[in-house]
Amino acid sequence: MSLCQLLSILELFHIADGIEKARLLPRFIQVTEKNLVMIMVIMLEEIQSKPVVCVQFFLWNILDLLRYPHELLRAMDKPSITMLWTRYTLWIPLYILSVATEAVTVYQALPYIEALNATHIHLPFILLGYLSVLALGASVTVWQLLKERQHHLEKWNKKKRK
């Protein structure tokens, strides 16, 4: 699973090459954040057995399963209103759930990280700061997703009327 998540860096090359039409900076932040959570938190053996980690991976995969078919159809110039609606409507609540499970995962990992890093007090505080940044970033992302949803669905409706 770790290797697959690290391969998600290829998404950045797809955007840079123009294969996928998306903004590079938000995707870079998303890929980096997932990989950091994977390396720093989920790699702890005590955390791997927690149910929230299973839910986290499930949500990450569902989000990708909603995004990739839509992007594939767009790349082939065969857009589907069903895929468009699904991608931009279901993605929002699933993203919120994903962020919540990620926060719970990090929070549950704090005692184990404190025990491992008894001499280094910085990492638990960094993770607590990360939780604050995660909440702020998720709020901005949800706002952006709502704007994107409105834009794409209005664009589709205008195209359909012509």
From TrEMBL:
- InterPro entries per record: Tyr_Pase-like_PTPLA (IPR007482)
Main EC class the enzyme belongs to: lyase
- Top-rank taxon of the source lineage equals Eukaryota
* Compartment annotation: Endoplasmic reticulum membrane; Membrane
Q: What pathway does this protein act in?
A: Lipid metabolism; fatty acid biosynthesis
Keyword Ligase listed? The answer is: no
Q: Which taxonomic lineage is given here?
A: Eukaryota, Metazoa, Chordata, Craniata, Vertebrata
Q: Which GO terms describe its biological process?
A: fatty acid elongation; sphingolipid biosynthetic process; very long-chain fatty acid biosynthetic process
The record's EC number reads 4.2.1.134
Q: How does it sit in the membrane?
A: Multi-pass membrane protein
Molecular function GO terms recorded: very-long-chain (3R)-3-hydroxyacyl-CoA dehydratase activity
**Is-annotated flag, keyword Signal?**
yes
User: What keywords does the record list, in alphabetical order?
Assistant: Endoplasmic reticulum, Fatty acid biosynthesis, Fatty acid metabolism, Lipid biosynthesis, Lipid metabolism, Lyase, Membrane, Signal, Transmembrane, Transmembrane helix
Q: Which family does it belong to?
A: Belongs to the very long-chain fatty acids dehydratase HACD family.
Show the GO cellular component annotation of the record. endoplasmic reticulum membrane
Record field: catalytic activity: a very-long-chain (3R)-3-hydroxyacyl-CoA = a very-long-chain (2E)-enoyl-CoA + H2O; (3R)-hydroxyhexadecanoyl-CoA = (2E)-hexadecenoyl-CoA + H2O
- Please give one Pfam family short name: PTPLA
- What's this protein's function? Catalyzes the third of the four reactions of the long-chain fatty acids elongation cycle. This endoplasmic reticulum-bound enzymatic process, allows the addition of two carbons to the chain of long- and very long-chain fatty acids/VLCFAs per cycle. This enzyme catalyzes the dehydration of the 3-hydroxyacyl-CoA intermediate into trans-2,3-enoyl-CoA, within each cycle of fatty acid elongation. Thereby, it participates to the production of VLCFAs of different chain lengths that are involved in multiple biological processes as precursors of membrane lipids and lipid mediators.
Q: Where are the transmembrane segments?
A: 88-110, 122-146
Signal peptide from the UniProt entry:
1-18
Q: What is this protein called?
A: Very-long-chain (3R)-3-hydroxyacyl-CoA dehydratase
